[in-house]
Amino acid sequence: MHWILFNRYSAAYAAVSLSMGMMIRIFSGCFVLSLISSCYYRQAYFLSPQNANTNPYHAIPMKKDSLKSAVFAGASFFHGSANDRGADQVYGFQGSLHRSNNFSIFQAYYGANLSLGSYQVTDYYNYGRGYGYPNPYDSAIHIPGAGCFFGSYGVSGGINIVVTHQHRTKYRHSEWRILGIETSLQKEFGKYSEWRDKLPDSAAEIILRKHFSAYLGLYTEWIWTNRHKTEVGFKIGLGTDLNPGSSYSNYYYYRPYILPLYCFSITYHVTKARYTGFMQTNFGTYATNFQIGLSYRLGKK
Length: 301
Fold this sequence. Notes:
Layout: H1 2-38, E1 45-46, E2 69-82, E3 88-103, E4 106-121, E5 124-127, E6 129-130, E7 133-134, E8 140-143, E9 146-166, E10 173-189, H2 191-198, E11 206-207, E12 212-225, E13 230-241, H3 251-258, E14 262-272, E15 275-284, E16 287-298
Parallel strand pairs: 1-11
Antiparallel strand pairs: 2-3, 2-16, 3-4, 4-9, 5-8, 6-7, 9-10, 10-12, 12-13, 13-14, 14-15, 15-16
């Protein structure tokens, strides 16, 4: 009997020991992985300050308003992060003027804009890398932190297919802009573009060498009205940068990892009389930002 109990306790002890050993090994492995990931080499991607930020919301009157065309003056402010791990910060303002049109089952807008802002570069060391890891024994290219002014001007436009619905309650209307396509062309100027021009290719993984950027995207949008004649809307969009690979340094080496640049946006907007306010969040390739803006409809109607 004692021998049987001893064997059972021995087996149980062996199982517990084995389990503890496995847990210790798993914990040790996770700990090592966490150390490696925390020390992972931060890369550098100096892209356009308009990356994931080029196309703020453009107001278009609902079909029920019976406005064949309208002109809007707008202003928006944005703040976001850029580069690997959101290391750099971007602040800016955009002023715009655009015209909208309603015809048949289509709606369209087109206009011009001017953006001004600051790109805050974080202090960065680019070490030589052996087998994909930093080599501290190699000499480093030091990119000191700096605040760089930037500006851009350009044009944008879009068109969509729309359907409307009249609810039983007279004051309630809804509109679904089923599918829209929009584009933006921007010319950059300022210290940040000049600063990128002076960087050697070896200073960073990817550097945008051109001062021109183009965006193309698709979107869908829903709008409702309430008894107070206030319009509330929600828009989601997905787009991509159209710049060719030759616009970037090291394109052929890093192409599988970063290009093309994509952007996903979510927008909430409210319209009361002539005013349209919006909040927009953009999630892009190595760029995330938040915009808040206001548009005013010009004219007598």
